[in-house]
Amino acid sequence: MENNENTALKLSNQAMGAIMMALQESLMNQLDIVPILQNFDLVHTQEGLVVQNPPTVRISNEALISEDDLKNMVQK
Fold first, then answer.
1. Nearest one of 7, 9, 4 to 42, comparing CA atoms
2. Any domain includes 3
């Protein structure tokens, strides 16, 4: 793909799911979503942009999640 300013990119279904997971986690713990989104590694595919390191959401652990935890939810 050429590096062209006018090239339109779309989010894949996978990327939309990753954003929704990040939003759910940040809302449940009343924390800023920005650190998660800033650490997304995006790749352009035929399906659209894909997040190579989507966040994980904890379901059973009752411990509070810190800003550092949010930053670390995406694997580098």
1. 9
2. no
pTM score, whole prediction: 0.68
End-to-end, the C-alpha distance of the chain in Å comes to: 24
Residue-wise pLDDT for 16-35, tens only, equals 999 999 998 888 888 899 99
- Residues contacting residue 63 through CB under 8 Å, at least 6 positions apart: none
- 30 located within any domain: yes
Q: Which two tokens stand for residue 16?
A: 């939309």
Residue 28 host element (H or E): helix 13-28
User: How many structural domains comprise the chain?
Assistant: 1
